[in-house]
Amino acid sequence: MATPHALDRPDDDVPIPRWRYVAAVIAALLLVGGGITWLVQPESTDCAENVKRIEAAGGTRCVGLTDGSYPFTKDLRHVYDLIEKENRRVTDEAAKRNGRPYVSIVYLLSMKAVRGDSNTTESIRHEVEGAYTAQYEVNHGRGHGQTPQIRLLLGDTGTEKAQRDYTLDRIKARRGPDRIVAAAGLGTSLTGTNAMISKLNDLDIAAFGSVITADELEKNDGLVRVAAPNADEAAAAVEFLTKEHRKDKVLIVQDANKNDLYTKTLASRFGAELPKDRLAFPEPMQYNSAKSQLATYFNNQMPNLCLDPPGVVYFAGRGRDLPDFLAPLANRRCKSDRKITVLSGDDVSQAAQSEGFDDVKQALRNGNIRLLFTGLAHPGAWDKAPQIFDKNAIVPFQEGGKFTETFKDDTLDDGQAIMGYDAVLTAVATIRKSVHLENSDQAIERDAVVQMLRTINGANAVPGASGWISLQNNGSPQRKAIPIIEIDSDGTTRSISVSASNGKPYAPE
Predict the structure, then answer these.
(1) Which of 322, 309, 320, 415 has its CA nearest to residue 362?
(2) How far apart are CA 338 and CA 77, in angstroms?
(3) Dist. CA 332–CA 309, nearest whole Å
(4) 271, 284 Cβ separation under 8 angstroms
(5) In 10 A of CB 472, how many CB atoms?
(6) What is the pLDDT of residues 434-456, one digit of tens each?
(7) Which of 150, 207, 231, 415 has its CA 20 to 30 A from that of 134?
(8) 102 by DSSP, 3-state: which?
(9) How many angstroms separate the CA atoms of 428 and 182, rounded?
(10) Which alpha helices (H) appear in 410-487, and where do they start and end?
């Protein structure tokens, strides 16, 4: 993949024209029957090699596949430059006599946050930074083997089917020339994620999800996840409530948006795990995140909540919707009667970077509310339960480690960098068990990587920075460590416990 021309810029540097026609016409006049015909040429939609501007209902943007030479946004330029540099070193070394051969992993995300996304600009950058840290560690260290080396390609899936399809087509076209054997990341648990994974399966490209947790995704044979599924998060939440809030009634607040697999399965799994006599109301309080006026809806529900105030609210929704719920909850008439604990799932990790977080902090200061969530990863968990984490696994994220030294101004609190790191690390562990190359000219059997997905367990479990990753036949990790995280009124986070689906995180005996 070539470096883009000097005039190429990421999406957010250049305004996108509404109509795709060149303002200036070709200065050639043809005399046709005494008349004059002007030739108008459509503007090229190419943004860079293998990157194209694709028009879709949600907006027009540059998407596709890059080796780091084209940053999809200004915010990603620094980490993309590092990835491009490492990729160039890998290919240069492979070209030398007796040089180490390489294969490529594509990191797939919607690389640009837009209004309504559950991911934020910061969380996307953190995840890519974690992926780069893993690439660097496995290429330069000896703790994870040495061959083949790893190129890391970046794929922007956009927000619409047409954009995602273009990027997948680029992966299909480049899987031979770029020696692509796996994809990692994969975005969040939306209905389009299923279709993307299915397409990767058709291409014999193994998929390693970083933060996708919806239980329905377990139906994909070519997919494994390093994150605990919603069923485990729900079970860990119930386990925590049984210990800490055993006498409190629980209200479930559920997002009814049918396109969001995360919220759908989070609510159903929690409801199935919680004993029915613990429910404050027989049915959940439902809202639809795809509709408007959320804060008004919740405000109108507060009088009903005060009739018999629950001690706990389980918020089965996205972090972006939390301000619209917490602000009316803080203004409830019965707030002086007792404190309410709001417990939610891992997507709340994005709340601190989202619009409306000031409202969340104000609600925690003045609303007699405590806010907790089941996270995917948190640096505080390493101190809270050191016995269930491998000491070497967390070195890149501690003082003097690769991530800490390279990205000094970035935080680990949202867990995204840790999960991006573990997704690539697990992909590499699988690749190096299945792709045995002596030189870069050897043919690659991609389906061998898919074949080996179910071998990553027991003695072959991966020591991830988020906890041990021992994969089950359904592709989900067994008893993955789940930190219980509290958000304080000043916006800081801390791990207060580390749990799992049965209360005991997996670790080798």
Answers:
(1) 322
(2) 48
(3) 10
(4) yes
(5) 15
(6) 988 887 778 888 999 999 998 99
(7) 231
(8) strand
(9) 9
(10) 416-434, 446-451
Map tokens 């989900």 to a residue. Answer: 476
Cβ within 8 Å of residue 180, ≥6 positions away:
103, 104, 105, 106, 153, 171, 174, 205, 446
Neighbours of 141 (CB within 10 A): 14
- Side chain identity at 446, as an amino acid letter? R
Prior bond of 386 cis (ω within 30°): no
Q: Which long-range contacts (CB under 8 A, 24 or more apart) does 403-406 make?
A: 403/129, 403/130, 403/133, 406/82, 406/129, 406/132, 406/133
Q: At a CB cut-off of 8 Å and minimum separation 6, what does 285 contact? A: 251, 252, 253, 254, 301, 305
The stretch 190-215 carries a mean pLDDT of 90
Amino acid identity at 466: S
Two structure tokens written together for 384 = 């809270």
| pLDDT band per the 50, 70, 90 thresholds, residue 189 | low
Give the tokens for residue 35: 């008349």
| Residue closest to 136 by CA, chosen among 397, 472, 365, 354 | 397
Angle at 402 between CA 189 and CA 153, to 5 degrees: 50
Nearest-CA neighbor of 451 among 182, 84, 161, 99?
182
The helix/strand/coil state of 474 is coil
Token pair recorded at residue 466? 């988020």
185-200 residues labelled b (16+ CB within 10 A) or e (exposed): bbbbbbebbbebbebb
Q: Are 481 and 415 in contact (CB under 8 A)?
A: no
pTM of the model: 0.89
Q: What angle do CA 238, 243, 249 make, to 5 degrees?
A: 60
Name the one residue in this structure whose structure tokens are 């991530």. 403
